[in-house]
Structures are given as structure tokens and as C-alpha cells.
Automatic annotation (TrEMBL):
Lineage, top ranks: unclassified sequences, metagenomes, organismal metagenomes
Gene3D superfamilies assigned to the protein according to its UniProt record, in alphabetical order: Glutaredoxin
Keyword Calcium among UniProt keywords: no
Domain Thioredoxin: 1-90
Name of the protein described by the UniProt record: Thioredoxin domain-containing protein
Keywords: Disulfide bond
Signal peptide: none
Coiled coil: none
């Protein structure tokens, strides 16, 4: 099972530039489960569980184990992370 968590906040300016990339990735990689987490309203405490200290951050999890993460506004890093996680899935 592959899950990609995108940690964001409504007050985060850089998050707004990353959101269109996340939308594109969800379409390009449908076998990955995509979860957007608003860190200001995180009742499940996923940000704490994944040790996310700033946004935007994307965390890739495969079979319950973190296999990578990317933070900031370098958009190519998000594409690379999704490609890496997708490569771990059966064809």
C-alpha cells in the first residue's frame, strides 16, 4: 500500500504554489492514496506522527514505512518523490 501525505496550512503562501502540483500528481499516479492534511486542524495528529515541522511537506509511506519526504517550493522534488513511491508498487 502506498500513501502520500501532503501537509499544508490555509495561511501558508508557498503551499498555494504547490497545490496545483499535488492535483496533477493525484491524476498521474492513481495507484497512490493521496491524503491532504491541514496542519491547523489535524485531529489525527498526522503531522506529529510524521514529525512534520513546517509546510508544505509531502511524506511518502509504503507498507506503513516512510520511504521519503520533500519540503519547500522546489516543485521537481514532489514529482520525483511521487515517481519513487510509484516505482515501489507492483505493475
Amino acid at each position: 500500500m502506498a500513501t502520500m501525505y501532503f501537509f499544508t496550512s490555509p495561511t501558508c503562501g508557498p503551499c498555494k504554489s504547490v497545490k496545483p502540483v499535488v492535483s496533477e500528481l493525484t491524476e498521474d499516479y492513481p495507484k497512490i492514496t493521496w491524503v491532504t492534511v491541514d496542519t491547523t486542524a489535524d485531529p489525527t495528529h498526522l503531522a506529529t506522527t510524521h514529525k512534520v515541522t513546517h509546510v508544505p511537506t509531502m511524506v511518502a509511506v509504503h507498507n506503513g514505512v516512510e520511504v521519503g519526504r520533500h519540503s519547500g517550493t522546489q516543485l521537481m522534488g514532489y514529482f520525483a518523490l511521487a515517481k519513487r513511491l510509484s516505482a515501489m508498487l507492483p505493475k
